[in-house]
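Project standup — Tuesday

K.O.: blocked on the structure for the chain from last sprint. Re-posting the sequence here as requested.
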Amino acid sequence: MAFQPIVDARDRSIFGYEALVRTDAGGGAAEVIARVTPAQLYRFDQTCRVKAIETAARLGLQQRLSINFFPNAVYEPATCIRLTLTAAQMFGFPTDKLIFETAESEQIRDHAHLTRIFRDYRSRGFLTAIDDFGAGYAGLNLLADFQPDVLKLDIALIRGIDRDPVRTAIARGIVQIAQDIGCTVLAEGVETAAEYRRLRELGVPLFQGYLFGRPQLETLGTVPDALWHQLDVTPEA
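H.V.: unblocked you, prediction finished:
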């Protein structure tokens, strides 16, 4: 497992880390998932959850742990979550620090099923997140049925937003909707200071991306104070 920091710009703290599966050689999640057959999906989903919790506990993670899951691999939420709860108890990881977000590689075939999963997870004290919002798989209809704790703006909407008034307008609208319904917005894939500044102007509080740290294999990366000081400097016109 690799871990990428999620930062809270309001107090410049690390909000949590997203666990990302990797190959033995460090290859990305897409390379791993490409090897998983439909028949293996449930076992793969369960194994990744346990591995993420075990590794995070071993590394001494104190913040939140965000785990991607495959909605299409979850048959019955109460049954599927048992192994996760057992792993958390076994490795001493607090369940109230777990965030479950939809896997960005998987198209959601049944929004009603995903809503049932999210509601079950929330009833157990987990935080929930919709990943890749704006990418087409997780749209307004899903948001109308279930309001997650965290709404992750898709990277395609983020890229170059500081130079794009249309993307800015769309992001502003999503941020306003999220505020109205009680969701916290997270901008993922942020790579430049200019993107960060524009998103902060729009009221986005949580950030994830190469600007703040790349995923590191079995390591909990930190965000240097120098970066925050750099982001404070207003560029000359």
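K.O.: great, moving the ticket to review. DSSP finds ten helices and nine strands in the chain. The two ends are 42 Å apart (CA to CA).
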